[in-house]
Design brief:
- By secondary structure, this protein is of the alpha/beta class.
- It folds into 4 domains: 6-137, Response regulator (Rossmann fold), CATH 3.40.50.2300; 149-315, P-loop containing nucleotide triphosphate hydrolases (Rossmann fold); 321-387, Helicase, Ruva Protein, domain 3 (Orthogonal Bundle), CATH 1.10.8.60; 416-455, Arc Repressor Mutant, subunit A, CATH 1.10.10.
- It has helices at 14-24, 36-46, 62-71, 87-95, 108-139, 149-161, 179-189, 207-215, 233-236, 252-264, 290-295, 301-307, 324-339, 348-356, 362-376, 416-430, 435-441, 446-455, and strands at residues 6-10, 29-33, 50-54, 77-82, 100-103, 169-172, 197-201, 216-217, 230-231, 241-245, 266-267, 276-277, 281-286, 310-313, 345-346, 381-382.
- Helix 2 packs parallel to helix 3 and helix 13 (324-339) packs across helix 15.
- The structure holds adenosine-5'-triphosphate (ATP).
- Residues 143-146, 173, 175-181, 245, 287, 327, 363-364, 367, 446-447 line the site of adenosine-5'-triphosphate (ATP).
- This is Two component, sigma54 specific, transcriptional regulator, Fis family.
- Keywords: ATP-binding, DNA-binding, Nucleotide-binding, Phosphoprotein, Transcription, Transcription regulation.
- Residues 6-119 form the Response regulatory domain.
- GO terms for molecular function: ATP binding; sequence-specific DNA binding.
């Protein structure tokens, strides 16, 4: 017997929905929504194979809605329905991942053919998803791509360190090399896998916020504290793994408190008098050599030894050039799936450009690059011209000018924050709004820059 597919019709015209229902319900399970919001709700709950989506809905445009449907997992196949053949809308919809479109009034033969094709596509996609999951299970490590010997050594070390429940693991490597992914790998392979994995970026917040985030606080601990108090991440992660990113940025006082937690397995929340017990493993990350910083007095030695029982060094992408193309192909698949696109691979020129680029932002930069191309372009392969925005090696980097840096101070005085914002804005413009370059230019960890760009409303 043919399998019944789930089809969701999102359209505000009741007679039109009823007509489509009559055509489809003999062979399929049909659901209806008269608004976008209702459509999202049903789709979230019912996971339809196919959505017939009107472009002109009362509460939001079908074009806005489309990416939200495509983000859902499993992602449904979507066919757009439009009142007139507005070519601009249709092109936009296909770019955003719609499989096809139908124009009202719908011609029955064309309708049947489109539905049949769309359901075939949905079926194939599900099969590909299922096979992909199987392959990932076989390899054991979800989403970790790389065959370079240094990378494989790091992976082996991570898997071995996961056997221990408590040993501190320090992961070092430049921004975007995959430190957090490794931390998750250690967690999911460890005896703590059934408990939470909680990440905190120690560079992104002020010391006070980090302290209250980590340790939580009791009622009325400080002005602005929530009346009922707040549970700290140490407790949220209880039983599991706490991932401390950019650990070098922890204030010395917090370093001391954290050391006590590791030694005594208990702590006081901010403003609290009752001790809380906690059982966690800490995996931390740093994009500089933490031992060197420790020797310079920027990090406590005793804490370093606790955190770095095992040290894993991740190579930059430049140091493992043979992994660039396999990673690019992996991301093409990921974003084909996300945006409903059908890129098959890379043209020789695109391969060349990707291998020649210096990848200062490492795997994250490569992933963003491929996402941008898959989202914006529609071709069989990723082509050289799609990658025009990658600067050739050595070009586009801010050149050292040897100029002395001077600041014009206004008569009426200026707040340090205002000055910081101004400098970040100028640097961001100078570096062509490239975040990795700006971070290097300002000698800031990328996370810190991202946080500040957001804080000052320069980017969201
Ligand atoms: N080997 C890999 N295979 C697949 N995806 C990867 C790999 N390495 C990194 N990524 C992806 O690249 C992006 C950046 O990785 P991640 O956030 O783990 O880097 P990071 O070193 O922790 O960065 P930061 O120092 O800025 O916090 C993520 O989307 C991650 O999934």
């Amino acid at each position: 017997m043919r399998e019944k597919h789930k089809i969701l019709i999102v359209d505000d015209e009741t007679p039109f929905r009823s007509a489509l229902r009559r055509l489809l319900e003999k062979n399929h399970i049909v659901m209806e929504a008269e608004t976008g919001a209702k459509g999202l709700e049903i789709s979230e709950r019912e996971e339809p194979d196919l959505i017939l989506l009107d472009i002109g809905l009362p509460d939001m445009s079908g074009l806005e809605l489309l990416p939200r449907f495509k983000e859902q997992r499993p992602s449904p196949t979507v066919v757009m329905i439009t009142a007139y053949e507005r070519i601009k809308d249709v092109v936009m919809a296909i770019k955003r991942g719609a499989f096809d479109y139908l124009v009202k009034p719908v011609d029955i033969d064309e309708f049947e053919l489109t539905i049949q094709n769309a359901l075939e596509h949905a079926g194939l996609k599900n099969e590909v998803d299922r096979l992909r999951q199987q392959v990932q299970k076989l390899h054991g490590v979800d989403r970790l791509v790389g065959k370079d010997p240094k990378f494989l050594d790091a992976q082996m070390l991570a898997i071995k360190s996961a056997q221990s429940r408590d040993a501190g693991v320090l992961i070092q490597g430049a921004s975007g090399v995959g430190k957090e992914l490794f931390a998750k790998l250690i967690h999911t392979r460890s005896p703590r896998a059934a408990y939470p994995f909680v990440a905190l970026n120690c560079a992104a917040f002020s010391t006070e916020i980090i302290e209250s985030e980590l340790f939580g606080y009791e009622r009325g601990a400080f002005t602005g504290a929530k009346a009922e108090g707040k549970e700290g991440l140490l407790q949220v992660a209880d039983g599991g793994t706490l991932f401390l990113d950019e650990v070098v940025d922890l204030h010395p006082e917090i370093q001391a408190k954290l050391l006590r937690v590791m030694e005594e397995k208990e702590f006081y929340p901010v403003g609290g008098t009752r001790k809380k017990k906690v059982d966690i493993r800490i995996v931390s990350a740093c994009n500089q050599d933490l031992w060197q910083l420790t020797e310079q007095g920027r990090f406590r030695k005793d804490l370093f030894f606790r955190l770095a029982t095992i040290r894993i060094d991740l190579p930059s992408l430049r140091e493992r050039p043979d992994d660039i193309l396999p990673l690019a192909l992996f991301f093409i698949e990921e974003f084909n799936d996300k945006y409903g696109k059908r890129f098959r691979g890379l043209s020789p020129r695109a391969e060349q450009l990707l291998t020649d680029h210096s990848w200062p932002g490492n795997v994250r930069e490569l992933r963003n690059t491929i996402e941008r191309v898959v989202l914006l372009e529609n071709d069989e392969n990723v082509l050289g011209r799609h990658l025009h925005f990658l600067s050739p090696p050595g070009k586009g980097e801010p050149e050292p000018s040897g100029e002395r840096f001077t600041v014009g101070l206004p008569q009426e005085g200026i707040g340090l924050e205002e000055m910081e914002k101004e400098i970040i804005l100028k640097a961001y413009d100078k570096c062509g709004k490239n975040k990795s370059k700006t971070a290097r230019f300002l000698r800031l960890p990328r996370h810190v820059l991202l946080y500040r760009l957001k804080k000052y409303g320069i980017e969201d």
